Amino acid sequence: EHDGLDIITMKTFLKRMAMTGRLVNTETGNVEFPPGNQTDWDGLKNDALTKLKEYLRRVTDVRNWKPRQCLATIPASTGPDGIANLKQIHSDLLQENIDSAQFVGKPTPVNATTKERMSEVLNKRENLCLYDEEMQQAPVVHFMCYHKENARLLTHFYLFLFFEDWRHDLWTKRFVRDHLRYVDKVQCAAAAVVRAL
After folding, report:
1. How far is CA 26 from CA 37, 39, 62, 149, 191, in A?
2. Which end of the chain is more exposed for a tag (fewer CB within 10 A), N or C?
3. DSSP H stretches of helix in 15-105
C-alpha cells in the first residue's frame, strides 16, 4: 500500500529469512531452521503454533516492552551518544515530576524540543524502552505475545511510541493512522456484533 513498506506473510518471511539460513539461535550462534523446515503455518491450531512461536523467540531479538511502564523511544541517530542524550532527558523529566493534566487543552507543538514533547507523553513512566544499538544491529526484532510473561503490545500507539526526531514521529503516527487498520469489512462486522449485543 505504501512505497518502501512491504508487508509480507509469515510464510514469505520464513522462506526469505529462515530457509536461507539467515536466522541464528541467539544462545548457540548456530543457524536454526523452523521446526520441520515448515514455512506454511496458516490455519494451524495453537498447540502447533507454539513450536513456531518458540522458534521465533530463539532466533530473534525479543523484547517484552510494557506500555504502562515504559515509553518506546527511537533515537534520531545510531550509537551511544543519542541513547545517552535520551536517557538524560528522561531522567531530568522524572525529577521534574510533571503532571500530564497540564497538557489537557494545551497540546505541545509537534516540532517542539525533544524534552517538551517527551514531557507530554511520558505520563510518569519510569523507564524508556529504547531502540538501542543491539536492536539496531539485529536482523529481526520480535515483539512477542505471550500471556505467561504478560507480553502484549496492545495499546494506543501514539501514547507509547516516541521518536526523538519530531519529523519521524509525525510521519510514523500519520502513517499508522492512515494505513494500518482493520479493513472496513471487519470493522462493519464488529459494529454489527456490538449493535446486536
Report:
1. 18, 20, 10, 19, 43
2. C
3. 46-59, 80-96
What pLDDT digit, counting tens, does each position of 51-76 carry?
999 999 999 999 889 888 899 999 99
- Amino acid at residue number 178: D
105-126 pLDDT per residue, tens? 999 999 999 999 999 999 888 9
Is the CB of residue 54 less than 8 Å from the CB of residue 63? Answer: no
In the structure grid, which three cell numbers stand for residue 61, read together? 531479538
For residue 128, the cross-strand partners are 71
Give the closest residue to 129 by CA, choosing from 60, 64, 197, 173.
64
Helix (H) or strand (E) holding 163: strand 161-163
Q: How many CB atoms lie within 10 A of CB 14?
A: 23
Query: Which residues pair with residue 24 across a beta bridge?
Result: 31
